Amino acid sequence: MQTATPLFDPAQADALKDRLLAADCVIVPTHQNVDADGLATPLALMHALNPLGANIIPVISDGRFPKALAFLPGIDKALRYGQDELPNFDLICMLDCSDKRRLGAFYEDDPSRVEGAYPILNVDHHVTNDNYGEINIVAPDAAATAEILAEIIRYWQIPVSKTIAQCLLAGVYGDTLGLRTDATRPRTMRIAADLVEAGANPAQITDELFRFKPRSTVCLWESALHHVDQTGKLIWTEVNFEILQKCGADPSEGEGIVNFLSGTEGTRAAAMLYQNETGYRVSMRSLSNDVDVAAICSVFGGGGHPRAAGCTVIGGIAERDEFLQHVAELLA
């Protein structure tokens, strides 16, 4: 049996724990438009270390609470930036954040927070992460940051409670679409099995992440799919302000559409564009082995994984169309 590549250096894991326990207050800001892995891992870290005397506080960096993640244990402990007052913190820990600037309003309001004013610890699985922290545990071979954190907590010999297990399995399931993506390795499945054995409920996680939905989501999907278009080998659609207002929906409710589009016959990649105040946030996916959407997104200042990545487009419809044409040329 082939031995899996270790996800971290034990010395780095020891240093990570020491710094987290020594700090007076650690905030864990999530990346903007946070997904299951991005929010479940800060919660799991909080559940694991706060009983040992740490003071770890997750912060939803753009203030947008994702309804689909309301089932996560301890979610009520997460602060919403712009709505809840930040504590006096002396350390920042970034989990599942490939770019320290990808923090929405938390970064935009005061870039100095992650540009030298505070020490940063960095744990992530994105290949485009540039090791921006004082301590960096970056493992692109992992299917999710939750997979890395599960291994670290086990290394720390902290018992995995049902609460921790539920958070970690939600992170793994969210990033692997329920253990179905190319990134899913035998180690990923063994970790998932261990988490189920520790009390995680995969049926509940699957229902909450992939099945249950409000009517606003159905409305948003109907509208977005109605406007699907194709530019070259790129299939795409968008969620604009008009759709959001009509459906009473949050942009996060459209997150699964790009995965749905990515398997469309005759295309090589899919893009979902979310209109915002400065232009568009773009989410890209591909099922083609010879297409690296992380490399494509890096052309526009973004990044991610070879099969799932994102970037931003500044401007209006003209800039949007220019972006789509450029991507189509890269896919040709």
Describe this structure in words.
The chain is an alpha/beta fold and 332 residues long. 38% of the residues lie in helices and 17% in strands. It contains twelve helices and twelve strands. The strands form two sheets. Strands 3-2-1-4-5-6 form a six-stranded parallel β-sheet, with helices on one face. A six-stranded mixed β-sheet has the order 7-8-9-10-12-11.
The parts where pLDDT drops under 50 for at least 5 residues are none
Structural class: alpha/beta
Strand order of the largest sheet: 3-2-1-4-5-6
Overall 3D geometry?
A: globular
Please report the distance between the alpha carbons of the first and last residues.
39 Å
Gist of the model:
The protein has 332 residues and is of the alpha/beta class. It has twelve helices and twelve strands.
SSE diagram, text form:
Elements: H1 10-22, E1 26-29, H2 36-49, E2 56-60, E3 79-80, E4 91-95, H3 105-109, E5 120-124, E6 135-138, H4 145-155, H5 162-176, H6 186-197, H7 202-211, H8 215-226, E7 229-231, E8 234-239, H9 241-247, H10 257-261, E9 269-275, E10 279-285, H11 293-298, E11 303-304, E12 308-314, H12 317-331
Parallel strand pairs: 1-2, 1-4, 2-3, 4-5, 5-6, 8-9
Antiparallel strand pairs: 7-8, 9-10, 10-12, 11-12
Features:
332 residues; 38% helix; six-stranded parallel β-sheet; alpha/beta; 12 helices; globular; 17% strand
